[in-house]
Amino acid sequence: MKEDQHKINENIDVDEVRVVGEGIESGVYSIDKALELAQEQNLDLVMISEKAVPPVCRIVEYKKFLYEQKKKEKEIKAKQQKVVVKEIRFGPQTDDHDFEFKKRHARSFLEEGSKLKAYVFFKGRSIIFKDQGEILLLKLAQELEDVGKVEQLPKLEGKRMIMMMAPKK
After folding, report:
1. Helices then strands, each counted (H, E), the chain
2. For residue 103, with 0-12 CB atoms within 10 Å meaning exposed, 13-18 middle and 19 or more buried, which class applies?
């Protein structure tokens, strides 16, 4: 554990600090007076905002302060959502049974909250069927509109026609 993420007690090298904390009258004190206040309560003087004028210090138990900070960071991290993108690949002449099978997978991906990247891959000269590929992707989007919304309409990128869908909240 690195002890030097905050300046504490005698390591604070400024003349005046704004002191905050429980059971303390907040205000601007000389560093000596602030340290004295902290020692009276058997607590630490911890600099929490160096950039402020004067710098802000809090009178707390340092280990407890670090623990609370870690807890807050963990909470924030837990609330973040990770975006998962699942892919489904079609050929330009995908038959109905195969289309239904892949559509069921696509539906389950959207229902679990993942984004969907559906694309038609054109091999060799099959690029002449690009309108069929677009129709296929639009049909997929239409049949999945109850669980997802189109983020990017089908567009050709090299040998692939790509469409992105996001789950409905």
Report:
1. 4, 8
2. middle
